Amino acid sequence: MRALLDVFLIVLQLYWWVIIAAAILSWLVAFNVVNRYNDVVRSIWNFVTALTEPLLRPIRGLIPNLGGIDISPLILLLLIYFLQQVIYMYIYPNVF
Questions:
Q1: Measured between alpha carbons, how far is residue 15 from residues 36, 77, 94 in Å?
Q2: How far apart are CA 83 and CA 77, in angstroms?
Q3: pLDDT for 36-61, tens place per residue?
């Protein structure tokens, strides 16, 4: 059971980095540092968007409109951190 928890924690950590990469890529596209018409950038954009949008979309529906600021990645990162801490402190020590 601990092996499954370890795999789940690794997946959460990888997803954490995918969310950060998506936020940085969206900033680079917004400030015209990278061009979304480039094939490599477009494929990375589609990959990162496909991974993050299913969880970010419901969060965006719940939070109020803050103008041009999107804090849904920050909320999702906090939720992932909370879930990791719950697993480390309460679930992991009680599993043999």
A1: 22, 9, 25
A2: 10
A3: 999 999 999 999 999 999 999 999 99
